[in-house]
UniProtKB/TrEMBL annotation, chains A, B:
One of its GO terms (molecular function) is DNA binding. Keywords: DNA-binding, Transcription, Transcription regulation. This is Helix-turn-helix transcriptional regulator. The keyword Transcription regulation applies. SUPFAM superfamilies: Winged helix' DNA-binding domain. Pfam families: HxlR. It comes from the Bacteria. Residues 17-108 form the HTH hxlR-type domain.
DNA sequence: AGCTTTGCTACACTAAATGTAGTGAAAGAT
DNA sequence: ATCTTTCACTACATTTAGTGTAGCAAAGCT
């Protein structure tokens, strides 16, 4: 399966705008979770599988291949790891961790 | 369909950690695209449908309901709009726009 | 009254993800 | 050397998510 390539139509957009290709890529199940996990250091297929709990090996394998094609992940001797591009992306995703907690708290209080 | 609720098991994670609920929510097709579009100002159902090009009304309707439940979107007189929470989220997503362009450029150059 | 726009719903079809099982290769123990 | 584990997947049947086309009721305009 092809990964969402900027400049080409992607799932959800014919325009091929980079941001839409990125949203398509990150929007696939567990893509952000994988990046989140690898930000803590390289991990094996099994480690990712365990971390992701409910991911099927089929999907994990697809997702890894897509992230490699997108140059966000590489295979190293210690397992899969973020590339420099992947690290950059993680740095932008990072604030979401803290924010998500506040969001969760707020939802809880005002339900 | 339920929206990913922090504290409960979500698609892709049984832990219910807020970040995972958020990733599940944003990871559904077009969720980030909708937020991205609404950041420019309120929009009607039809406007969103046009912007999203390939979204089906079925999915758009589901996504809107989920985002409303998650307190990121509300219905106003001028159409659907981001809540304050939604705006906050957008501000964190915003840098991705610029970054996506560089990423696309880089992919193009080194293929 | 008739025409348009809006915000949907219905439904059949396709694509994506899951869950369980199993396979081939490499490393470690006996 | 063979036996067992561990690892990185692949196969495949089932379930869930998303698409695409059609259409409908309510509101606004003329």
């Amino acid at each position: 399966m092809a990964f969402p390539t900027p400049g080409k139509p992607v799932r959800g957009s014919r325009s091929g705008q980079p941001i839409m290709a990125l949203f398509d890529l990150l929007g696939r199940s567990w893509a952000m979770g994988i990046i989140w996990h690898l930000s803590a250091g390289p991990g094996t297929f099994r480690a990712l599988q365990e971390y992701c709990e409910t991911i099927s090996p089929t999907t994990l394998n697809k997702r890894i291949k897509e992230l490699i094609q997108a140059r966000m992940v590489t295979k190293t001797l210690e397992g899969y790891a973020l590339t420099e591009t992947g690290e950059e992306l993680f740095k932008m995703l990072f604030p979401l961790g803290k924010w998500a907690k506040d969001w969760a708290q707020n939802l809880k209080e005002n339900k």
